[in-house]
Request: fold
Amino acid sequence: MLGPGALIAIGVVLLYTVLGPLVLFAIYVLFDSLYKSGRPGKNQQDKTIEKKDPALWTSEDIDVHMNRIF
Reply:
């Protein structure tokens, strides 16, 4: 029979194995929602740039695109 230390260790490993991915997913969802809600105007600018042919971009479109990357 296993001692109490071994049972606690097994329980902790199982707990981290089950809840670890859920916690990481929750953190990912939190950061994703913060990114989307923090930039309402930027999403619409991205949509208009994506519809244009990159060969026809103005300097303003290039600035918006570079700001989105960096």
